[in-house]
Structures are given as structure tokens and as C-alpha cells.
């Protein structure tokens, strides 16, 4: 379950090590879960992204959060710390093994009432949701980002933020497609299509951050007509 992308950083190794090792660790049981995941090579968001989310969500103060791609439930548990007493995190995953692990994580942290786990294909579940959400975190199959985008933007409130993880394809996102291994070319093409779409859309504001394998933050400035 080694997360290869975490070992191909797009920033100098010394700076990555500094961001991962010098920023404040998570307290309590969630911090234990983070360390266990790193020791076992389980793919979770790297600590520099953790630190950013803690800072950003502390400022945004979201009430309702949607996550696409639960994995072991670490990031949704982290985000659940910032939604307040009345808030809720809704997360979607289709892999049975991850769903089981996520449920164990929520039980360990006492978050069964704070996190709603929807089991199934995001392509089928997203159209059934009504939102609006203050914050959406997408960290799923990279080739599906462009397909999930219309529903994410529909569900996001005006002024809300869509954060999308792993958009640099291990630093190869700008390489000519002929240099990309054939097994990765669909991801490469669709990630570029996704980035082109959100970075040029007149009703969106976006910014790229070199966290992990690249993050893009997208704000919906007004209700979309398309």
C-alpha cells in the first residue's frame, strides 16, 4: 500500500522534510493513527497537507464538508475537528477494504455521529446529494476529477472552497504525453483537462500549492450558468 507519490516530491527534499517533520504534530488518538499509517505505508495525506488543512479550516470554519475518497478515514476525521457541534462531514468511498478501515477509525475517535460514510461509486452518489457544502475535499481516482467536477461545483456554496489533491502526477503533469508511460496517459490527459478547466473558468478563482503531489484550491465566485 506504499504511496509512491509521497516519495516523489515536487519540492526540494530538504524542504519537504522540514515541512513534514518540523510542523506541529496532531495531538491525541488521531495523531497516533497518523503515525501508524506512516509506519505501515498506508496512503494518507502527508503532514504538510495536514498542517495546511488545520490552518485553513480553522479560518474557514466550515459547517458542512464533503469528501470524495475516504481511504482509512484519516482526513475526514481531521476535518471533523473543524465543523463545530452542529456540523457534519460526508465522505464517499467504494472500496470495501477502505470502508472497513474507515469505520474502525471513526469508532476509535468516537466520530460515528459526526462523519457520514456513503458506500458506493461517487459517480452514482454525487448526483443524489443536494448540499450546499462549505468545503469539498477531492482525493480519489485522478482520472475522475474532471467527471466529478460539475457535481462538485453544483454542491459547493458560493464562496465555498473545493480542494483537490494530487494534481501534479508526481511532477510529470507538464511533460509531453509521449514521455508518460502508456498506463498513465489517461490520468495525465484528464488531469491536464481538469486543470485547464478550473484555471480558466470565468466564475472560479483557483490557486496551486506545492503540498505533497500538488494541491489546487478552487473558490466558486458566483452561481454557475454552465
TrEMBL record:
EC numbers: 2.1.1.-
Key words, A-Z: Methyltransferase, S-adenosyl-L-methionine, Transferase, tRNA processing
The reaction(s) this protein catalyses: 5-hydroxyuridine(34) in tRNA + S-adenosyl-L-methionine = 5-methoxyuridine(34) in tRNA + S-adenosyl-L-homocysteine + H(+)
Cited SUPFAM superfamilies: S-adenosyl-L-methionine-dependent methyltransferases
Coiled-coil parts of chain: none
Binding site for S-adenosyl-L-methionine: 45, 75, 93, 139
Subunit structure: Homodimer.
Family of the protein in this entry: Belongs to the class I-like SAM-binding methyltransferase superfamily. Cation-dependent O-methyltransferase family.
Role description: Catalyzes the methylation of 5-hydroxyuridine (ho5U) to form 5-methoxyuridine (mo5U) at position 34 in tRNAs.
Annotated protein name in UniProt: tRNA 5-hydroxyuridine methyltransferase
Amino acid at each position: 500500500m506504499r504511496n509512491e507519490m509521497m516519495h516523489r516530491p515536487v519540492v526540494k527534499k530538504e524542504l519537504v522534510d522540514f515541512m513534514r517533520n518540523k510542523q506541529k504534530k496532531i495531538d491525541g488518538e488521531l495523531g497516533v493513527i497518523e503515525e501508524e499509517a506512516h509506519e505501515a505505508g498506508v496512503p494518507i495525506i502527508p503532514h504538510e497537507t495536514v498542517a495546511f488543512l488545520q490552518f485553513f479550516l480553522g479560518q474557514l470554519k466550515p459547517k458542512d464538508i464533503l469528501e470524495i475518497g475516504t481511504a482509512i478515514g484519516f482526513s475526514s476525521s481531521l476535518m471533523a475537528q473543524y465543523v463545530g457541534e452542529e456540523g457534519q462531514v460526508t465522505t464517499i468511498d467504494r472500496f470495501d477494504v477502505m470502508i472497513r478501515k474507515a469505520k474502525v477509525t471513526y469508532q476509535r475517535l468516537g466520530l460515528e455521529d459526526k462523519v457520514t460514510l456513503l458506500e458506493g461509486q461517487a459517480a452514482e452518489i454525487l448526483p443524489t446529494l443536494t448540499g450546499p457544502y462549505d468545503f469539498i475535499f477531492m482525493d480519489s481516482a485522478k482520472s475522475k476529477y474532471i467527471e466529478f467536477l460539475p457535481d462538485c461545483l453544483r454542491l459547493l456554496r458560493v464562496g465555498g472552497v473545493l480542494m483537490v489533491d494530487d494534481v501534479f502526477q508526481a511532477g510529470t503533469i507538464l511533460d509531453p504525453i509521449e514521455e508518460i508511460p502508456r498506463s498513465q496517459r489517461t490520468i495525465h490527459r484528464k488531469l491536464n483537462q481538469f486543470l485547464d478547466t478550473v484555471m480558466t473558468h470565468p466564475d472560479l478563482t483557483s490557486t496551486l500549492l506545492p503540498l505533497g503531489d500538488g494541491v489546487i484550491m478552487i473558490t466558486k465566485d458566483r452561481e454557475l450558468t454552465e
